[in-house]
Amino acid sequence: MKKLKNKLPTKLKTCLKMAGLLFLVALSFVFAMFQGGFVSWFLFYSFLPFAIYSSILFFYPIHKFQIGRNLSKREARAGDRVEVTIKVSRKTRFPLFFLLVEQKLPQKLERSMAGTKKIMVFPWFKRSFSLTYTLENLPRGEHSFEGIRLKTGDFLGLFDKEAAFDIPERLLVYPSYSELTYKQLDHLFDQGQAGTANRLQREHSIVSGVRGYQPGDQLSWINWKVTAKKNDIMTKEFEEMKSHDVFLVLDESPAGHFEAIVSYAASFVHSINKKGIQFGFYRTGMNGEVLAIRGGELQKQNIFYSLAKAEPNAEYPIDSFLGRNVLVTVASNASLVIFTSDLSMKTIESAARSKTGQATTILFLKNNPLSREEQAALELAKAKGINVKYVNEGTLEGGKSEVIAQ
């Protein structure tokens, strides 16, 4: 019998319920007419208001309700909380015994919270009301809210009225980040392996040659001896600083602590941006896109947005990426910084083959001591001139980020 009910169309079920309600009203009336007496008529008049309410509810246009959703903020950081307010308004004061408001949460929020947020309210004669719930400990990502479903019914449980409202909304949760406090960051800059804030300045203590005068050259740059010989103003040519830019690569291979890698990459971007360094970015996953080397807050926000969408869905391991793509995407004068949890001999060999003069640094994150294979890969990296820094995931908690070994 239940299987037969499930196969019936929804409209046919509703019509059968309506016919059943009319039959009950007619039956109670006939019973009162033939039986007579106070009890039979009392039963009829007691049942009549519920039947009338159910009949009106049958035609009540719940789909004409006006629904709105408001987020306390549309951009947040991982771990933050956001309040969601749903406003419901209608044109009439028809009494509603109850109203169930269902909000299906985005896919990522379903993993850490209940799949559907359900709130029961009792509006009765209210024309408008609002309800608020809080999303705690938000996970990183771009979360898209979709529809809201309303459901109500009568006292007898005969009729259920439902209406779905398509209200798209986006919540962008950036990765959490902290100030990098380890001394090796400054040491990395001093060695010319990660760029400089003075990108266009020259090292005036080392003269590499002479050239013709150009507007903007300082008077102290003029080489008077060569100027006298050539009878033309000649200025000194100075050596450029060792490196200028940084190109960051996030390894999106599946990893158990992928969120820690993303968080550390965000902390790194935040720190080097404060130093005025220009940087580019690339994710190795299926939806990765190259962000050309630039500087400033806009570039930082673009990279943070890319990090918010990062997923551990790379089709190829990081060593395959280094062997195929890095020479195309990285400028020859830019330092290469790789965030990964895979430190293997293949990774080091691929990084060494793709190395064309620019400094290469691998920031290797994991939560366990180095294995023998990783120790061997670390020794190979030193021999190949690749800078490897091992960061223990446990040190990222509490806003601290320290390099444990290198």
Automatic annotation (TrEMBL):
All copies of domain DUF58, residue ranges: 210-362
InterPro entries documented for this protein: DUF58
Upper lineage: Bacteria, Bacillati, Bacillota, Bacilli, Bacillales
Listed PANTHER family: DUF58 DOMAIN-CONTAINING PROTEIN, SLR1927 PROTEIN-RELATED
Name of the protein: DUF58 domain-containing protein
Xref: Pfam families: DUF58
